[in-house]
């Protein structure tokens, strides 16, 4: 990874009773700003799709990582979340 770049990482899926926990990592140019990119829980599904496209088009790099329901059961939700985040970060290509 290039020096001076910072990846933002967040997860989704910690609350469900079944299914995976998924994490995304994204890197923007240090001077990139966009007020539309904020908490996805506050956006409609259609708006989330638009913002997702905006992120993919403007990011230096982005990646998604996941941990399965079996991993959650075997490791606990905290460790599985960290594994998903680690996979997302390791998938970045910049």
UniProtKB/TrEMBL annotation:
InterPro entries: RNase_HII/HIII, RNase_HII/HIII_dom, RNaseH-like_sf, RNaseH_sf
One biological process term in Gene Ontology: DNA replication, removal of RNA primer
Enzyme Commission identifier(s): 3.1.26.4
Primary location: cytoplasm
The reaction(s) this protein catalyses: Endonucleolytic cleavage to 5'-phosphomonoester
Localization: Cytoplasm
Enzyme class: hydrolase
Keyword Mitochondrion belongs to the record: no
GO MF annotation list: metal ion binding; RNA binding; RNA-DNA hybrid ribonuclease activity
Keyword GTP-binding: no
GO cellular component: cytoplasm; ribonuclease H2 complex
Keywords on record: Cytoplasm, Endonuclease, Hydrolase, Metal-binding, Nuclease
Pfam families attached to this UniProt entry: RNase_HII (PF01351)
Occurrences of domain RNase H type-2 (ranges): 4-94
Protein name: ribonuclease H
Organism: marine metagenome
């Amino acid at each position: 990874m290039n020096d001076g770049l910072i990846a933002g990482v967040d997860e989704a899926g910690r609350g469900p009773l079944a299914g995976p926990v998924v994490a995304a990592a994204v890197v923007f140019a240090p001077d990139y700003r966009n007020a539309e990119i904020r908490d996805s829980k506050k956006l409609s599904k259609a708006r989330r799709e638009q913002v997702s496209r905006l992120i993919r088009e403007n990011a230096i790099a982005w990646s998604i990582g996941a941990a399965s329901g079996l991993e959650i059961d075997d490791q606990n939700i905290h460790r599985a979340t960290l594994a998903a985040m680690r996979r997302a970060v390791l998938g970045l290509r910049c």
